[in-house]
Specification:
Layout: H1 9-16, H2 20-28, H3 38-50, H4 57-62, E1 69-74, H5 80-95, E2 99-104, H6 109-121, E3 126-130, H7 135-144, E4 148-152, E5 160-164, H8 166-180, E6 193-196, H9 203-218, E7 228-229, H10 235-249, E8 255-258, H11 261-271, H12 276-279, E9 283-286, E10 299-304, H13 307-319, E11 326-330, E12 333-334
Parallel strand pairs: 1-2, 1-3, 3-4, 4-5, 5-11, 6-7, 6-8, 8-9, 9-10
Antiparallel strand pairs: 10-12
Helix pairs in contact: 1-2, 1-3, 2-3, 2-6, 5-13, 6-7, 8-9, 10-11
Length: about 325
Amino acid sequence: MKIRQKITIYDIAKKAGASPSAVSAALNGDWKQRRLKQETVERIKQVACDEGYSANLQARGLRKAESGLAGMVLPDHENRFFAELSQQFAREAHDRGLCPAIVHAGRDADAQLRSVESLIAYSVDLVMIAGATEPLELARACRNSSVRHVFVDHACAEAPSVVTDNKEGAASLTKMLLEDMEVPSGSDPRTWLYFIGGERSLPASAERILGFCQETKASQALFDADQVMACGYEIKETEKVLSALHARLGQLPAGLFVNSIGCFEGVLRFLSSLPEEEISKATFGCFDHDPFATLSRFRLRMVRQRADLMVAEAFRQLDSGASKPNLIRVSPELV
């Protein structure tokens, strides 16, 4: 006799075209809090009925117990800062006897939400979310499922958050770069300090741009809006934008503030096409840290974000059961 395999919420989710957490909410009666559409709930229930699925109330009660899983969602594994966050998260989770489940979701808001919902469906005890594009939706998904959560890198207005003090760090780096340069002249854009990389719509970049602008204004070194070139985080785009600036100026600018290590790679790719003599005349700074970059032959300042302190503080928030909005800033380290 052939025994039919037990139907799970994941099977129903696939057939109904919904997320596992949406299926759980629909079958448990929590769909209104999740703001699911009536038609979606009816479709899920119909699929469940057709497949002969019935929720096990005892298992539902057991989901309230600890699973031993600690979930983390982050945009990128290759970026050194996010890699350090991931490593520190795993260490802190293991120290607490938890098994870390780490998901790379990119910067797409829908992909991040699906990742959080999947972790919730696996009954994780907690979720740490790094670099959230739309944090409010992620916080509500966690809150509706009574899952402890905290945000790092990008803050959330409805949950505990631990972030780098981007404004302070950017201002300090800007001040140091200006001290390394000759005094900029408003009539000669070749002598200016330029900011390159990042997205103005993202909190971290917005605060770094603010710190850069405040310090350059205070030093009377902000002359034009074109000094801030927020061209995103793509390596090729950063290389393209710097190439265009070089063509416009006829040389490298006197100083360049690079917004991330990924953008810095784009800068390095362009610099590889220039004579060493020209590169040696410019001053460079990067709001990120890579030990290999310190071996460069040109003047370079870097900012190291304290991933270790951020993750440790984030776990303190989780361990304390904190749920109210609370923004904690961690000062970065100038290298």
